[in-house]
Specification:
Helix content is 31%, strand content 25%. With 549 residues, it is of the alpha+beta class. It folds into 2 domains: 163 residues, Penicillin-binding protein 2a (Domain 2) (Alpha-Beta Complex); 328 residues, DD-peptidase/beta-lactamase superfamily (Beta-lactamase, 3-Layer(aba) Sandwich). Strands 2, 3, 4, 5, 10, 18 and 19 form a 7-stranded mixed β-sheet that branches. Strands 12-11-23-22-21 form a 5-stranded antiparallel β-sheet, with helices on both faces.
Length: 549
Amino acid sequence: MRERLPWLLIGLFFVLICWRIVDVQLLPDPRVVAQAGQQYWAQVAISTGRGAIEDRNGFPLALSSPSISLFIDPLYWNPSKAKELSPLLTPEEIREISRPLEGRFRWLARKLEPERADKIMRLSLPGVFAIKEMKRTYSGGELAAHVIGFVDIDDRGLAGIEYEWDRVLYSPPQAKILLRNAAGNLLDVLPSHLMSHGRGSVQLTIDARIQYIVSKHLARGAERHKAQWGTVICMDPRDGAVLAMASWPTFDPNNRNELAFPELTRNNAINRVYEPGSTFKPVVMSLALEQGHVSPKRGFDCRGEIKVADGKIRDIHRGGHGKVTPLDIIVKSCNVGMAQVGIILPSRETYSCLKEWGFGIPTGIELGGEESGLINPPETWRGVTPANIAIGQGVAITPLQLVRAFSAIANGGLLLRPYLVERAFDARGRLVHEGKREVLARVLSPSTASWMQGALRNVALKGTGARANSSLVEVAGKTGTAQVAKGGLYEKGRHVASFAGFWPFEDPRFVMIVVIGDPKEGGYQGGEVAAPIFRDIVDEIAASRLEQM
């Protein structure tokens, strides 16, 4: 035992030496690790992109594509160098980097075009680095911008479909580890353990071809008449699918500078209410016929003006139209005759029927910020109110509510829920939503709907809507000219011109409304402002043979 003890001590000594070598070489002091990490590493969240938004035919409306983002490491950045970037960055961005910065990471400019990023990197400024990041891009620019919406710099939806379907389209950012050497050069970009969750996708009912035609003619018409605002909505009356929804003025979601102006990003189709004027007459006349309070052959006397309780209703033709039937009232847009129809209707019944038609209630379309409109309850009505409502005054509606009402007339009397999303898929490609026809109520019998269809065809043939008539396809519809109310009074010289209708007459596949707000040149009436825009859109769709869809 004594002879082996020295060898045991020698062996133990060597074991201790080996352990120390391992401890120093392979298991460094945690303080050294922390210090090394602070000196050479940083972690940052990088956008991984969003799911695609497509039109009904698979045309890409919103995609994510690679871009270049630039950042600064304040440890190596000299604020005096900021002036060298002034031709390439905004004044605000320059101010941010013209002072001493703290930490080890600061965004300089994100999601730049390669050309602009390359110009900055060519300056070889110490402390400025580039990294790849996904950027949201909109292939059509202004096309359907108010429907698609837009996102913030971190790819979260802020408006439109981008916002309403953010839960499907959004993909969480991926944490990236940036490796630098002691000289401050970026060596590598490594993924962390937090990986992307994948992306879903959304297919819309919008047809990009129809959307383009609608947007083009809306812009031309609004600019021609020096209008303040406008909108066009085109729907399929058979199922409620929205084929086009355009708003003017518009914006390009690729240009972030335009996103700060509410007058550009406002969707007039759903976010604006107005008095419909004579386009409301077919709705009130339909419910009067449906409820049996008026017959198609009943006569009314129009002398150009009628006193109703505490107010007066005047016709645009001061001499009046003489003896008129319900058909004459619609075709000639007779205010005096229509006012008499409104007086006949029981107030409570009128109110209930208008609610059943969806007025004063959001349609439920898949977009945020939809206005309800306003139909006051009968207990608040004055003596002239029923007559005013019959001619489209004293009520506030959205263009989408009215085009849906015309859709009910066109399809035989069924009120449908309008919808924009055809399908939605999750990150695994599984179907999570499918748009479909949803009947909310039967508001008209087929016979009443058929009568009104014929009346509206006559409006386009020989009435106030003659300028909407097409030589390529049979059109039916109604003009509207409304005054603009503010503070309970109508403002002189301010009007809203509109035309709502459908085609082909024998088998309606399209229902559309054109609304032009505050036209200043070339007239102000629906027949001279909105009707020609309606006709131009119909003609181009017909000529493109899109009516065969």
